[in-house]
Amino acid sequence: DNWHPRFFINLGTRDRMNKRDLMDFICSHAKLKPSEIGHVELQSSHSFFEVDAKVSRKIASNFKNIVLKGGRELRVNRDN
User: What is the DSSP string of the chain?
Assistant: First the structure.
């Protein structure tokens, strides 16, 4: 099972995100293919997502210094 790395992201349904939007956002910013993203769990103010273990380093390096609408800084942290 390569879907071990689970990440927290401070985007959720109140940001008008659905599962597809969040996957597109992650793929675009982390330069991943949709097939490299596993389970996605959306909550109101944040979400969790899993990625293939082989690409987990791309998450930390590609989600730095991103500011969201309204001036909020994007936070992406390893959850496990």
Answer: -----EEEES--GGGT--HHHHHHHHHHHHT--GGGEEEEEE-SS-EEEEE-GGGHHHHHHHSSS-B-GGGPBP-EEE--
